[in-house]
Write a structure and sequence with these properties.
This protein is α+β, with helices and mostly antiparallel strands and 181 residues long. It contains 7 helices and 8 strands. A hairpin with an 8-residue loop joins β3 and β4.
């Protein structure tokens, strides 16, 4: 359990009609984390590399596209086990860790927004909360239209020479091995 996130969720649950500040505080705390865990797509999973891309699902929020985010591995594991969200060969749980420094998970949220995502499902499998993605950007003072893409200088040069736009898509994330003997 992520204590800081749980405290913010508890404050939100207790807020009643004064929910807005605790709601924004939860989103600010979520963005302050050093690492977040994301459900990964089964259809994009590559069994050779053990990698996939973050999952956007429409199963909740009356069909609104949502990014499934977890604040700790315990909650992510409960969700993964409940939905049997694993690779076909049962070698990988389709959950991936994204560190803020290495992959700048801000870009994950920006890319999700550009792909039509409207919600963040935070910690389903535990005490979950639905967060509006636009409110997440507002709470953290971020511009959802500026996407940080990990491009090399050579890729940028080639695109400029060919008058190409970068493809906006998630970078692959390593799935968590299930530790079978």
């Amino acid at each position: 359990m992520n204590k800081a996130i749980e405290e913010r969720k508890n404050a939100l649950n207790a807020a009643g009609e004064d929910w807005k500040e605790p709601y924004f505080a939860l989103m600010r705390e979520l963005y302050r984390q050093d690492v977040l865990f994301f459900a990964l797509s089964k259809s994009a999973f590559n069994p050779i590399t053990g990698m996939s891309t973050p999952l956007i699902s429409t199963k909740d929020f009356d069909g609104a596209p949502a990014l499934y985010v977890f604040s700790d591995t315990d909650t992510a594991t409960v969700w993964m086990q409940h939905y049997q969200h694993v690779s076909e060969d049962l070698k990988f749980g389709l959950i991936g860790a994204i560190e803020k420094e290495d992959h700048d998970f801000l870009s994950v949220f920006q890319i999700a927004k550009s792909m039509g995502t409207q919600m963040i499902m935070l910690d389903e499998g535990g005490d979950y909360v639905g967060l509006q993605l636009d409110a997440f950007f507002e709470a953290n003072g971020m511009d959802p239209t500026k996407i940080e893409l990990p491009l090399s200088e050579e890729e940028i040069e080639r695109m400029l020479e060919n008058k190409e736009s970068p493809a906006i898509r998630f970078s692959p994330v390593a799935a968590i091995p299930l530790g079978r003997p």
